[in-house]
Design brief:
alpha+beta; 14-stranded mixed sheet; transmembrane helix; transmembrane
Length: 428
């Protein structure tokens, strides 16, 4: 087997719109699957398809680091043979779940769901390409991965087909796309990953009766290259990303002899693997790359929060905890340590620190303004109260109202000026 190129993106919806209609009729699940060109959805231990539901049982062998999987129909009246074709197509799910069990701490990096979406054709420029997507959700972040195949030749992209922006199919805009079996094409101005994200987002929105629909989202891209034919990693990375020099030094974070894994911002390379047994480096690479994308995306979203300082602080503490708390194997720990030292992570970390400092000053300023307004209000109330007592002084002590009023009017402004000077000196 030759090179394998996997384009990856992480999406998280940051704002939803709420439907004004309280009651909307939900469509049947099998109808939604067909409408959105999905074969099945695996959520937790339940696989839901148009043919019915299956329960997934897993057993992990810690000695041999292997995972066994089995399916059984939830409806006892159904036969497992009815799901044979679907079970055969769950290979990527099982391999990815196994990679998760080997590399991840499920308390921090947990795959929520896996989605099997049909392949489709895209028209970009003058060429047609087949897109084979693999989609899953980790910590509620949608991870979109896909392989690009030249539809004319039937050959997947090689290592030299993805250089720079023109070779980065995470960034190229699609003219139109079409699912196999559909009679017509759909015009589009989206990127491939956006087409997939919008389709999955629409599916989940319709599943709950369109009570909530995604309005805004944040995303980040990366390219995973598996090849044994790359001699000069630095030169290849620069050509792949489209830069003159690397932002971070090269570092092999792999701890096994099965492969070497070199991460960078925006891309990663896996080499020196057995081409006849690519599943381990491929799915381990997808899992590690997903963790990298998740950390970067979480940090970017947190840096964009402008109103809730407490949320920014909580998220920042959570992010810091990711690097020190998870009980992960050395390979994943090496990746997290590498991410923590990168310039992009440190840049966003410093930006978050500055934002927290700024928001703290803003909150203090708001508190001071509120205190000033409260003091002014108390000052006015005191003035009115003093004026109200003048009649009592006139009736009880025979002090003329006019004289008392003049004294009050003279004294209160003087006290107000003194208070203002004290406040000004305290602040400046």
């Amino acid at each position: 087997m030759g090179d394998t190129i996997v384009f990856m993106s992480a999406y998280e919806t940051t704002r939803y719109s709420k439907s004004k209609l309280l009651f909307k009729q939900k469509q049947q699940f099998d109808t939604l699957l067909e409408k959105h060109h999905l074969n099945y959805v695996l959520m937790g231990d339940k696989l839901i398809s148009s043919k019915g539901k299956l329960r997934l049982s897993t057993e992990y062998n810690y000695v041999h680091q292997s995972t066994s999987f089995s399916f059984n129909p939830i409806n006892e009246k159904q036969d497992i043979e009815d799901f044979e074709e679907i079970i055969e197509s769950t290979g990527f799910c099982m391999k990815l779940l196994h990679a998760q069990s080997v590399l991840a701490d499920l308390s921090y990096f947990n795959i929520d769901s896996l989605i099997c979406m049909e392949s489709f054709l895209v028209h970009i420029g003058e060429n047609f390409f087949q897109i084979d997507p693999v989609i899953f959700s980790m910590n509620r972040v949608l991870i979109v991965t896909f392989e690009v195949i030249d539809f004319k030749t039937g050959i997947p992209f090689k290592r030299d087909d993805v250089f720079g922006k023109m070779g980065n199919y995470n960034l190229l805009t699609v003219n139109e796309y079409q699912y196999f079996g559909d009679e017509s094409t759909t015009s589009s101005n989206d990127k491939i990953s956006e087409i997939i994200y919008n389709n999955i987002s629409g599916f989940f929105s319709e599943m709950i009766g369109k009570r909530f629909e995604a309005q805004e989202y944040s995303f980040i891209h990366s390219t995973l290259v598996l090849s044994n034919e790359i001699d000069n990693l630095t030169e290849y990375f620069c050509n792949l990303i489209g830069t003159r020099e690397l932002a971070s030094p090269l570092e092999n974070i792999s701890t096994t002899e099965n492969y070497e894994y070199y991460p960078q911002d925006g891309a990663s390379i896996i080499k020196n693997y057995n081409p006849d047994d690519i599943d381990i480096p491929l799915y381990n690479g997808i899992m590690l790359e997903s963790i990298k994308l998740y950390v970067y995306l979480f940090q970017i979203i947190n840096a964009d929060i402008t109103l809730d300082m407490n949320k920014v602080v909580r998220n920042d503490l959570y992010l810091e905890n990711l690097f020190f708390a998870p009980q992960v194997p050395i390979e994943t720990h090496n990746l997290l340590s590498y991410i923590y030292k990168t310039k992009s992570y440190q840049y966003h970390k410093e930006a978050t620190r500055l934002k927290i400092s700024y928001m703290t000053i803003e909150n203090e300023s708001k508190k001071n303004r509120n205190a000033v307004l409260l003091n002014i209000l108390l000052y006015i109330v005191s003035l009115l109260g003093a004026v109200g007592t003048l009649e009592t002084l006139e009736s009880k002590l025979n002090i003329p109202f006019k004289c008392s009023f003049i004294v009050v009017i003279l004294v209160f402004p003087i006290l107000g000026v003194i208070w203002g000077i004290v406040e000004w000196r305290r602040k400046f």
